[in-house]
Amino acid sequence: MEKKKKLLTIGQFAALHGINKKTLMWYDEIGLFHPSFIHPENGYRYYSYYQSAILETILLLRELDVPVDEIQAFMKNRSAANMEQLLQEKIENLDRNLAYLKGVRKTLSYHHRNMQTLLTMDLSEITIVQKKERSLVTVNINQDTTFDKQVEMITAETKKYQLRRLHDASYGTMIAVDSLQNGDFNDYSKLFIEIPFPIKKAGLHIQPAGDYVRAFYRDATESPVLCYQRIFEYVEEHGLALSGFSYEVIINENVIDHAEDALVQIEIPVKSK
After folding, report:
1. What is the mean pLDDT of residues 108-121?
2. What is each CA distance from 78 to 83, 217, 254, in whole angstroms?
3. Following DSSP, what letter does each residue of 25-56 receive, concatenated?
4. Fewer CB within 10 A of the terminal residue: the chain, N end or C end?
């Protein structure tokens, strides 16, 4: 009880809460948080121990980026109900920010993996990789879909899913395995965008988890036809069968200046015959 009666100097009180004395002086000047006692002769400010909880509430709200005027309004009408509502709003804001940051990390990891691949890859090598299930936003295209129209559709989808910019997501093209096996190597049917944060919406394309055959080709020196023929030979030799779609992405577009330098990664689901 004794410590709650004892008055602390502004320096002691500021040190207790890990803030600057000028912060306390400013809070006093704007009417947000006043000292418990001001000495009438020298004007020194003193604070009582019980004010700590009040100040910590203010500091917490400041950390949550609550504007000063909102804090002032809250402090004038403090109640459990108002505090619960304010904290609920801030929790929801933090959850949204965390989801966004997780998405940013996923995007950075995606580009980082691509750079590692560029530094260590053998273009002639075909491998089998395991992939997790992904939810993809897709737009339908065909051989008559102009480039301008494709850009228009991709732009519309990124806005729909509230991406800040296109590179917040990975994107590429899809071609059905049936088309490839029929020799229709230009029969691209979809553009896809992988949204880096969790979404629950109808109409998403589910890229299945499992084994994928992976190959690469350099756009300027090898046609996709030759690359796909190498894939056909590989899966035949290893007793595998292709299924679903081929997913093509350019993995070096953020380090090249010319489209002809593009390095394309192909991934297709495979299973044993």
Report:
1. 78
2. 7, 65, 52
3. HHHHHTTSS--SEE-TTT--EEEEGGGHHHHH
4. N
